[in-house]
Design goal:
It is a single chain. Helices cover 39% and strands 12% of the residues. It has 190 residues and is of the alpha/beta class. A hairpin with a 2-residue loop joins strand 4 and strand 5. Helix 3 crosses helix 8. The structure holds iron/sulfur cluster.
Length: 190
């Protein structure tokens, strides 16, 4: 899998050496992101799981692979056109939800990455990135199914694909619906 530039080198180095919150203690590889933003779409997850911590690449576990295949099928993108990152860069113990303090401590990296990538649209996957980007406490079931504007960037919240792997096919159908909302917003690489 090609590792393109999802962040400027200085930001990548800072994230890789960051010790600003206690999550650095248990991590192997923080996630900076993959892709270079040419499609205009950024996919944002919560935080690394076991596979992501092992590789430093986002969305490579079972549910991540499902999401990637949905994105490629529904948007007609090549794998290398996917730009993916996490709002929290280091794996929380036992995959727990990041705390508000951890999220707030890590957030300045996200702001800098957004300034660098300048996405047209962001697919926020699950509660944590959706709430963080939209500044709300509403849950993903309420938020998903429509688009939002955040300072000129279109935000599309959707379910985490893990829900679709728990024997709930309607979840995958809902994710596919949300992903298709992104179609008019893509900038295809020339
Ligand atoms: S989660 Fe973010 S703030 Fe915490 S150590 Fe990792 S990179 Fe730094």
């Amino acid at each position: 899998m090609a590792q393109l530039q999802a962040a400027p080198p200085s930001l990548t180095l800072e994230i890789r050496s960051c010790t600003k919150c206690s999550l650095h203690e248990g991590r192997d590889h923080p996630v900076v992101g993959i892709g270079d933003g040419r499609s205009g779409l950024l996919v944002l997850g919560e935080a690394p799981g076991a596979e992501e911590d092992r590789t430093g690449v986002p969305f490579v576990g079972r549910s991540g692979r499902l999401l990637r295949s949905i994105l490629l099928q529904e948007l007609g993108l090549e794998e290398e056109a996917l730009t993916i990152s996490n709002v929290v860069r280091c794996r929380p113990p036992k995959n727990r939800t990041p705390t508000k303090v951890e999220l707030a401590t890590c957030w300045p990296y996200m702001e800098r990455q957004l300034a660098y990538l300048q996405p047209r649209a962001i697919l926020t996957v699950g509660n944590t990135p959706s709430r963080a980007l939209l500044g709300t406490t509403e849950g993903i079931t309420t938020l998903r199914g429509r688009t939002y504007d955040r300072n000129g960037i279109v935000i599309v919240p959707t379910f985490h694909p893990a829900a679709a792997l728990r024997g709930r096919p309607e979840m995958e159908a809902a994710i596919r619906h949300d992903v298709r909302l992104l179609l008019p917003l893509l900038k295809f690489p020339s």
